[in-house]
Design goal:
The structure holds two protein chains of two kinds. In chain A, 80% of the residues lie in helices and 0% in strands. Chain A is globular and about 75 Å long. Chain A is mainly α. Chain B is flat. The two termini of chain B are 23 Å apart. The mean pLDDT of chain B is 86. Classes of the chains: A mainly alpha, B mainly alpha. At the A-B interface, α1, α4, α5, α8 and α9 of A face α1, α4, α5, α8 and α9 of B.
């Protein structure tokens, strides 16, 4: 009993120890002679610096906002089109056999590989970046909606039919609500994939945005700026997935806690 | 029975018609100048460029085959390393509480940073050689391997563990004989995600800093305004990705066949 108590205390210490280890490794890596890696202190002061002094006419919050806006705009389009396409694939067999092969053909191409072609098509303005994010978030939403709607419990559909629902009612009152968890899972994947795509697109061509900022750091050898951007990108990503998990709890409470 | 066959034939027919219309329209749009040849090439041109690029190294410095081999080698080495380290780490983290408490916080801090965001710092520190790209691919493939192996162990049915314990299995036996087999499907799902992630991260890394590889090829295609080269590159990337995923599926059927029964 006594021993178990000590062990439990030790377990509480472990997470603290682990974060400490990470920090110590970072400091050691940074402290080496001629090391390019900035110390945590340098990173923090760079972070504060860029909050106040704009780079390319924007401070850090503005760069984050520019990137986020691209993701959000693309995302709204991806949800609208992706969910309707996924539902059509799952609900209408003729449409499915007609269009799905084309979709299947394009699917394995990573969204990032679209960047050069999209730049040729639309130049380097705002739209091409949104378009790339759209490609990146569209695919997971369609796939998840499709698999969600085809794997509904047939009992639900039959119950609906037995109660005299027509096909439209079945779709909107039975099939769609039952697909919400799958759609939400798709949305989660889509958002983090979209966030990655916007960073990639901005790294290749952009004048503003976090992806631009990180490449600026690379070009000027400003490693403190790079690490600051990496941390900011990570924090935004973590916040996005946190918000979505909360949203999942609100939209489909019966599912909450069951899936991770 | 006949009805089912008819349905299959109908759906196959529709699929073929759909694809023919897709390619037909694409060809038509480019040939009639509906879409400028500077922004899109007709499918027939793409096929021609692909055949030509098999032997020619102009204008981007290497044949498709050489680009492909460079990318393939890189992706596979980074990916293999990630699987070899990531899967056991995830399994141990899932089973041993101490490992879990110690590793999870570190992991949670590093995890949200997308692999692409590692590219600039890695290039500055390690240069643009093979090592740098391998590291980036490793990071991208490592995360899904660990997460899924970890979850796979955590999701092992408590009943199975209790049965094993009742029959007198030791901790280590439970881990190797019960938890690991039951987590295999999750592990494979993670490995599959890893494969996709490493392949797409590789393309990004090659687009940003490289002198050879499929990502470099499509980036050059953009600079030279040669949509045919870009599309050949995209299709090669897509086909390879799909083929690798298919191979992995075969392996899973061999190693963990119970999901398919």
């Amino acid at each position: 009993m006594m021993k178990a108590g000590v062990q439990n205390k030790l377990y509480y210490l472990l997470p603290v120890l682990s974060v400490l280890t990470l920090m110590i490794v970072w400091v050691i890596l940074a402290a080496q002679d001629g090391s390019l890696i900035p110390t945590p202190y340098e990173t923090l002061s760079r972070f504060l610096g860029i909050m106040a002094n704009p780079i390319s006419q924007a401070t850090l919050p503005l760069h984050v906002w520019v990137s986020l806006r691209r993701v959000l705009l693309a995302f709204v389009a991806a949800i609208l089109l992706g969910v309707s396409l996924g539902v059509m694939f799952g609900w209408n067999e003729t449409f499915n056999s007609f269009i799905y092969p084309i979709f299947e053909l394009l699917r394995p191409i990573p969204p990032i590989a679209w960047i050069p072609l999209v730049i040729l098509w639309f130049g380097i303005g705002e739209f091409p970046k949104i378009f790339i994010v759209f490609i990146g978030s569209f695919m997971p939403i369609v796939l998840n909606t499709h698999s969600g709607i085809t794997s509904i419990d047939p009992l639900l559909i039959k119950a609906g039919q037995a109660l005299g629902a027509n096909r439209t009612q079945l779709l909107f009152h039975v099939a769609l609500p039952a697909t919400i968890p799958a759609i939400l899972a798709g949305i989660k994947t889509a958002l983090s994939s979209g966030w990655m795509c916007v960073i990639a697109a901005e790294m290749i061509v952009a004048k503003q945005g976090v992806g631009f900022l990180i490449v600026r750091g690379q070009e000027s050898g400003d490693t403190a700026l790079i690490v600051t951007c990496m941390l900011v990108i990570g924090i935004v990503n973590a916040m996005i997935s946190f918000t979505l998990t909360r949203l999942e709890g609100v939209l489909c409470p019966w599912q909450f806690g069951k899936t991770k | 029975m006949k009805n089912v066959d008819q349905k299959k034939i109908r759906s196959l027919f529709l699929s073929i018609v759909g694809l023919i219309i897709f390619f037909g329209f694409w060809e038509f749009a480019v040939r009639t100048g509906l879409v400028s040849g500077r922004s899109l090439s007709a499918p027939s041109d793409v096929v021609q460029t692909f055949i030509a690029k098999l032997t020619q190294s102009k204008p981007d410095g290497a044949t498709v085959w050489q680009h492909f081999l460079t990318s393939f080698q890189l992706a596979l080495s980074g990916f293999t390393l990630a699987v070899i380290i990531g899967v056991p780490l995830g399994l141990f983290m899932g089973y041993f509480k101490g490992m879990d408490l110690f590793m999870t916080p570190i992991f949670e801090i590093v995890r949200p940073i997308p692999p692409i965001a590692w590219i600039p710092i890695v290039i500055l520190v390690l240069g643009i050689d093979m090592r740098a790209k391998m590291f980036i691919i490793f990071v991208s493939a490592f995360v899904p391997c660990v997460i899924n192996s970890y979850l796979g162990i955590k999701l092992t049915s408590k009943t199975l563990i209790n049965v094993a314990r009742t029959f007198g299995a030791s901790n280590w036996q439970i881990f190797t004989k019960v938890c690991i087999p039951s987590s295999l499907n999750m592990v494979f799902a993670g490995v599959r995600t890893s494969l996709g992630a490493s392949w797409s991260t590789l393309v990004a890394a090659e687009m940003l800093a490289s002198t050879r590889g499929l990502g470099y090829m499509i980036q050059m295609g953009r600079q030279l305004i040669r949509p045919d080269i870009i599309i050949v590159g995209m299709l090669t990337i897509g086909c390879t990705g799909a083929f690798l995923a298919y191979l992995l599926g075969l392996l899973e059927k061999k190693v963990a066949p119970w999901r398919y029964k």
